[in-house]
Structure formats: C-alpha cells, structure tokens
C-alpha cells in the first residue's frame, strides 16, 4: 500500500503540470492572529509531549479546538466558529465520560527507535501538509469556482441571506439529508454497542469495579444544580434564537441542535444520570427518527407542488402588529436537522453514561444531595457513600 | 497570514500522525481528532482566506468569502463528532471486555486463549 501511494505521488510529481500560477496578494499578519497561532502551536506541542497524561491531553484538546474556532471566526466563517465551539464541548464531555472507564495514563512502551521512526514519519507528513496548504493559499483559483453562483442565487433562489445555511438546506439539501441519517446511524450504533456491552459479562465487571480515586463527597452540588436549572431556559432560548435566525444570519439547525443538547447535558451533569433519566419524556431514538422524518416530509412536500424532491419555496407574510417576516420550506428541513442532531448527540452521551450507572444502587430522587429547603435530616454519612453519576 | 495557517495545518497533521502511530487506543483517538482539525482547516482554507467578508448577504457589501467550503466543513465537523463517538465506544468495548487497549497485538502467543484484539476500525 505504501508503495502504491509513493508511486502515485511520484507519477503526479513528474507528469503533473501546475495551474496558472498567479500569485495572490498575501494578507497582512496581525498581532492577534500571531497570538492565536502561538497558542495553537504551543497546545499541540504540549499535547504530544505530555500525551501519557490523558486528562491533560483533553484540556489541551480544548485549547486547540477553541483556537481553531477563533481562527474560523477571524477568517469570515461565523457559522463554522459556532459549530466548532459547540462540537468541542460535546466531544470533550464524551471523551471525559470514556476516560471514566479507561486508564488515566498511557504506559511508556515504545522504544527510542520506534519513537524516532514515528517522529520522522509525522514530520514528513506535517511538512507535506504545510507545503500543500501554502501552495493552495498563495495562488489564485486555477479555474473560476462555482461559489459565485451560490452567492448570486442565495437570495433569489433560496430566500436567505446566510449563504452557508442556504447551501446546506437548499442547494445541497440532499447531501445534508444524507448526513443527518449518517449521524443518526452512528448514534444508534453506539446505543447498540452499549446494550451489547451491558448484557455481556462486562456488566458484572463494571459493577465490581472499584474506584481508583476517592469520590467527591457532594456528587450533585447545590450551586451546580441551581445554576444549571436557571441556565436551562436561557440556553434553550438561545437555541431557538440561533435556529430561527439561521436562514439570514449565522446559525441554523446544526448549531441550534448542539446548543440545546448542551443544555440537556448540563442537567445530567448536575443531578446525575438516574435523576435526569426519570424525567426524560421522549426517547432520543424517537427524536432522531422524528428529525429524519420531518426533513424527509419537507422534501416530499415539494412533490405535491410538482417539483423534484427537496425543492424549496419561500414567501413573505405579515401578521398585522408585527413586521413582515419570511417563511420558507427550508425551515421545516432545518427543523429536521435540528431534531436529528439533538437526538444523535444526546443518545451517544446517554449511552456512555449508562455504562457507569448501576441499576442496583440506591439513588436519591432529589436533584441535589444537600438541599436546605428539605425538611428531612440528612445523616452525615450520606455524603460519604460514593454516589454514581 | 497564509504562512501561519499553512504551518498550523502542518503542525496539527504532524501531531495527529504521531499520535495515531501510538500503541494504545486513546492516543489513536486523539490523533484522529487532531487530523480531523487539520483536514477541516485545510478544506476551509481551500476557499482562500478573507477577513471581514462573511458570506452573509448585506446591502453595500462588495465582497464575500467563498461560502461553499464553509458549508462542506460545517457538516464535516458534526459528522466527525459522530465518528469519534463510534470509535470511542469500540475502544471502550475492547478495553472493558479484554482489559487491554493495545491497538494491534504483534502475535498471539502459544496457549493464549484470548482472541487478538480488534484492529482499529477508523478509516
């Protein structure tokens, strides 16, 4: 396989012709960009140097993700910045949940020879990636891109000002439809694998597992519970706002879905899996299904108007006391995307926390361990029993 | 500015490749995440860089950056979360059922009843 890659590369090197080779004027370097770049490079360097400490790796990953998000925002991609930062939150929570079961450190096994070999391969890969990116960035497009079509037709054809969102839900709606299905399948695979793990001998091992570190006495602290409870409607409101403005300003179904998922995840974090699971009214599988169904139904709606699947339409309406507003069928499609993302993210995270939950253990029905407003007397030992999140 | 982006992509890919070549599942997952950052930034940058030109139509704006790579990368970011989650649950399953998180065991020794660990399923 290596030989094939090298042969293909060599063929391209010797027989390929370069494009027009018009140099692009380079953007000036700003101090802020240098600072963000330095943080990104430093975080990546520390990550490789300290990769045996897995918790430190996750913190450094957070820095890298944040800097990538800041970079997207700096170079005129507000949608990407929003998505990157909210995906970063759920990814870190997911990896933390996984780290709950995996060992905290990576043993030092590979010898100096192997590490040198890996470093050489990685270095070569890095230099190649830098060279490729530099070549692309410093030259003009060899042929005119099709993006001008999207910019010109976004408002006329899709009825939206945010071209990125219009591309997602109108121009490339079929593509997005496939993507939410893939996301749903990934979440269902995670659910199925968790079920398989829990019904095998692994379950007994999980139940007998001891804790390597002492547990925090107050697993569901009052401050965290109250704070997340107050923040929940605020975050949901932000989610709805981001969803509604998506067609005309940065935002849309993907980001709104992630924001709402984060709001729900904080409830799990504050009050524990058992407490949140008892209050959950709709199963997450159903939400994924509803999302794909709504998106599909919006697409089929176009057939009734004699148009191909997923053709979108829009119009402007006015309810007397309010300003004129726009309604587009793309909104129904975006609602499907929103529901599928919420369901998929929550089902994945819920499956991971189910592994840690012991059905046999006695769990409190109260949201917090120590609640001043509760009458009953709490025994001092109650806080010391290891509570399971 | 272009050189900063190019070198950042290079450093992220180098770190990603190095981590993917480690022996345990967790660093490999981290490595694939770093590689996906690098690939996302690279794809995004292929629309060329522009400052203060978001692809949101406004009256009076004269230039917009390329919206197409942004739309492609947006879904790629979300999908990469799904893929990470699937690989993590596979790693977790292999660790919980065999107490072993080696990515590939060199050879099964004589009399070792345990099956060789599953090869990493990430493309």
TrEMBL record, chain B:
Q: Which controlled-vocabulary keywords does the entry list?
A: Cell membrane, Membrane, Transmembrane, Transmembrane helix
Annotated membrane topology: Multi-pass membrane protein
Q: Name one Pfam family in it.
A: Oxidored_q2
Main localization, broad class: membrane
Annotated compartments: Cell membrane
Gene3D superfamilies per the UniProt record, alphabetical:
1.10.287.3510
Spans traversing the lipid bilayer? 26-50, 71-96
Q: Name one GO cellular component term.
A: plasma membrane
The similarity annotation says: Belongs to the CPA3 antiporters (TC 2.A.63) subunit C family.
Q: Which NCBIfam families match?
A: PRK09094.1
User: What is the protein's given name?
Assistant: Na(+) H(+) antiporter subunit C
Species of the source: Limimaricola cinnabarinus LL-001
């Amino acid at each position: 396989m290596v030989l094939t890659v090298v042969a293909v590369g060599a063929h391209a090197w010797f027989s390929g012709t370069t494009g027009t080779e018009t140099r692009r004027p380079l953007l000036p370097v700003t101090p802020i960009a240098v600072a963000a770049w330095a943080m990104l490079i430093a975080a990546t360097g520390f990550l490789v140097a300290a990769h045996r400490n897995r918790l430190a790796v996750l913190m450094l990953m957070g820095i890298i993700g944040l800097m990538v998000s800041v970079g997207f925002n700096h170079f005129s991609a507000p949608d990407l910045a929003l998505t990157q930062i909210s995906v970063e939150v759920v990814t870190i929570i997911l990896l933390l949940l996984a780290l709950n079961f995996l060992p905290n450190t990576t043993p030092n096994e590979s010898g100096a020879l192997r590490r040198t070999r890996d470093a050489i391969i990685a270095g070569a890969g890095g230099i190649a990636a830098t060279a490729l990116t530099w070549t692309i960035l410093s030259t003009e497009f060899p042929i005119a891109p099709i993006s001008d079509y999207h910019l010109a037709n976004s408002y006329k054809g899709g009825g939206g000002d945010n071209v990125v969102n219009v591309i997602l839900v109108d121009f490339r709606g079929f593509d997005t439809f496939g993507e939410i299905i893939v996301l749903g399948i990934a979440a269902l695979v995670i659910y199925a694998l968790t079920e398989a793990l829990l019904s095998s001998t692994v379950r007994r091992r999980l139940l007998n597992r001891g804790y390597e570190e002492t547990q925090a006495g107050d697993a569901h602290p009052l401050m965290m519970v109250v704070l997340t409870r107050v923040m929940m409607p605020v975050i949901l409101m932000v989610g709805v706002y981001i969803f509604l403005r998506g067609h005309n300003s940065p935002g849309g179904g993907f980001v709104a879905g992630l924001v709402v998922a984060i709001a729900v995840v904080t409830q799990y974090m504050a009050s524990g899996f058992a407490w949140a699971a008892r209050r959950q009214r709709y199963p997450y599988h159903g939400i994924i299904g509803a999302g794909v169904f709504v998106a599909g139904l919006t697409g089929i709606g176009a057939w009734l108007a004699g148009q191909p699947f997923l053709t979108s339409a829009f119009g402007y309406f006015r309810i007397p006391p309010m300003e004129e507003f726009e309604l587009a069928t793309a909104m129904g499609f975006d609602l499907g995307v929103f529901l599928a993302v919420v369901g998929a993210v929550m089902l994945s995270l819920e499956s991971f926390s189910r592994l840690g939950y012991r059905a046999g253990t006695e769990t409190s029905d109260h949201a917090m361990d120590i609640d001043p407003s509760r009458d009953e007397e709490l025994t001092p030992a109650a806080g010391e029993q290891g509570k399971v999140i | 500015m272009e050189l900063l982006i190019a070198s950042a992509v290079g450093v992220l890919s180098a770190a990603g490749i190095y981590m993917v070549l480690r022996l345990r599942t967790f660093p490999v997952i981290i490595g694939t995440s770093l590689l996906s950052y690098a690939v996302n930034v690279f794809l995004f940058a292929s629309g060329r860089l522009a400052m203060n030109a978001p692809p949101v139509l406004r009256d009076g704006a004269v230039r917009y950056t390329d919206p197409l790579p942004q739309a492609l990368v947006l879904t790629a970011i979300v999908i990469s979360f799904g893929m990470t989650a699937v690989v993590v649950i596979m790693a977790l399953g292999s660790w919980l059922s065999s107490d072993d998180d080696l990515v590939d065991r060199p050879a099964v020794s004589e009399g070792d009843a345990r099956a060789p660990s599953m090869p990493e399923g990430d493309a």
